[in-house]
From TrEMBL:
Residues 208-369 form the N-acetyltransferase domain. InterPro entries: Acyl_CoA_acyltransferase (IPR016181), FkbH_domain (IPR010037), GNAT_dom (IPR000182), HAD-like_sf (IPR036412), HAD_sf (IPR023214), HAD_SF_ppase_IIIC (IPR010033). The lineage of its organism: Bacteria, Pseudomonadati, Myxococcota, Myxococcia, Myxococcales. This is HAD-IIIC family phosphatase. SUPFAM superfamilies: Acyl-CoA N-acyltransferases (Nat), HAD-like.
């Protein structure tokens, strides 16, 4: 494919792209769901557990849970119940392993939903809450207007909702729950670790790999742009076709990052798009999965790009578009030595003079294959 054709494809792909603030209202209505939070009594099972220990499982709900899990959509619980009895019943039904950070207590459901979002580190607008009681749904909706509340009577149809159907089912999405369970195991080990945080991170034996995106990476790359909100420097989302055009372009680098440690893989957790000219490289997109921020890897991909730009003898710039969530990325750029040199509408153009010598954390192995 010629340079001209690829360039034309890229221009056509992005010329109509709306700015993040223009899409905000629409996104709140159509955000993809990352986690479904379930009530238990008369929702996941028929009956009230404290009144009847022989409650019966709603098989249609169990089927929905398994189906969504295969798509990479997580599950949790917000239920007014006895924790031990409820978890025992879930284990009896063979469903206990599907629920992350279950909130089974006597508090408000809205507080439980907030605790789940914080533990998983996702936005409330990516959560759906299912309950048979209108009062409970109203209480959650009042406190968290962006949470999608669903009547338990409609639970059997949840898997057919557009927000529950990601465009691609990637290798990462198929094992997403298992990756979160590994995260919980790591956290438990970390909490019991005696020593410095750096010593704990070193004990994980982390390997951070950076490579040029391959065709088989594009589905996950698109998923990353769609799912990542807090750590996306521009807030842009890109389709598979757009990313493929960038991958083939001689004027762009599309980089993906993955992370592994002794407990398993975190999967593909970072993405960067660099536009190259003879004297200036511009970071058009930089994002990292929220799941890995506690691992101290937030600047590894950025530092690798800084090193490559310095070695190439070019200026390095970055575009930043503020959203209501991504201030962390602006702080990351500032700490890395970027300063604003231009403002184009909502876009801040930042530049790094490359006077610093960025390095990688000593507690991990970094491999770069670009």
């Amino acid at each position: 494919m010629t340079t001209q054709i690829v360039s034309e494809q890229i221009v056509d792909a992005v010329k109509e792209r709306p700015r993040p603030e223009e899409k905000k209202a629409a996104e709140k209505k159509s955000s993809s769901i990352k986690c479904v939070v379930w009530d238990l009594d008369n929702t996941l099972w028929e009956g009230v557990l404290l009144e009847d220990s022989k409650v019966t499982l709603r098989q249609d709900v169990a089927d929905v849970i398994r189906t969504l899990d295969e798509r990479g959509i997580l599950h949790s619980i917000a239920s007014r119940n006895d924790h031990a009895a409820a978890m025992a019943k879930l284990k009896e039904f063979g469903l206990d392993e599907y629920f992350l950070y279950p909130q089974i207590n006597w508090g408000n459901k809205s507080a439980s939903v907030a605790a789940i979002a914080k533990s998983i580190n996702i936005g409330l607008d990516t959560i759906a809450f299912v309950d048979d009681q209108p009062f409970e749904r109203d209480e959650v909706a009042f406190e968290h207007a962006v949470v999608r509340c669903i009547d338990a009577a409609d639970a059997a149809g949840i898997a057919s909702l557009p927000a529950m159907n990601p465009r691609f089912i990637t290798e990462d999405s198929k094992v997403r729950r298992k990756m979160y369970l590994a995260d919980i195991e790591r956290k438990n080990v970390e909490d019991s670790h005696e020593g410095s945080p750096e010593a704990f991170l070193a004990s994980l034996e982390m390997v951070f790999d950076i490579s040029a995106a391959r065709e088989e990476d594009l589905k996950r790359a698109e998923e990353l742009t769609v799912r990542t909100n807090q750590l996306n420097a521009t807030g842009y989302t890109y389709s598979y076709e757009e990313l493929d055009a960038f991958r083939k372009s001689p004027d762009h680098d599309l980089l993906v990052a993955s992370l592994d440690d002794k407990y398993g893989t975190y999967g593909k957790i970072g993405l960067a798009l660099v536009e190259r000219t003879s004297d200036v490289w511009t970071l058009k997109l930089l994002l990292m999965s929220c799941r890995v921020m506690s691992r101290g890897v937030g600047t590894v991909l950025l530092n690798a790009i800084l090193q490559r730009a310095k070695a190439a003898g070019v200026k390095l710039r970055a575009e930043f578009v503020p959203t209501d969530r991504n201030r962390t990325m602006y702080v990351t750029y500032k700490f890395a030595g970027f300063r604003e040199i231009e403002k184009r509408g909502t876009i801040s153009v930042l530049e790094n003079d490359l006077s610093r010598g960025p390095d990688f954390p000593p507690y991990m192995k970094v491999t770069v294959d670009v």
